[in-house]
Amino acid sequence: MEATNKRRRVKIKSTSRMRKADRKRQLMDEAKQLFVTLGYQHTTTEKIAQAAGVTEPVLYRHFSSKKKLFLEVLDDIRRATILRWQTDTKSIGDPLKRMYAIVDLYLGSTREHAVDFHIMHRSLVETDDEDIADCLRTFYLDSEKMLAEVIREGQATGVFRKELDPRVGAWELIRTALGYTLTLPLAIPIYQEKDYVPQAIACMLTCLMK
To answer: Tag placement on the chain: N or C end, fewer CB within 10 Å?
Structure first.
């Protein structure tokens, strides 16, 4: 009886009409969950379609392949993340305060948007596809550009060391933050302490300051 009801629910779900943009978003959201739990290699279009309650032909109307879907997921994560950081900090005039805010947003994003970051970081170590690598590279280069710009502004106002290459400073921040994100699932005890994040940010930014 339960199996019958489940099949009926799946059938209703798969046959219900949905706007093209909404269906595409639904497929991407379902795919995200599978990419996190199964990884890119073990996620199939059949599994994505089943999770979304549609047939594979419906999925192929929106994405020509699993790789195409995955690239759109990565690009969507990249654009949304960078836009969120820029929007939430654009009104902060002081470069040091803005850098604190950006780093704080990054550390917060790894928790609030854990699925997105898990997909990106798992992709770094599990896939050797050049198109996927290029998409990931674009995200980190966008991050470098944003951070380096803030560092240059801080150098101009005398907050940050003028002899430091802003790109080097940006990448040291990226690498440190990436290490935090990769170890976050391990439930490191100190990460749970209320003053850890402020101290971690201060430690990261010390290398930039005069």
So the answer is: N
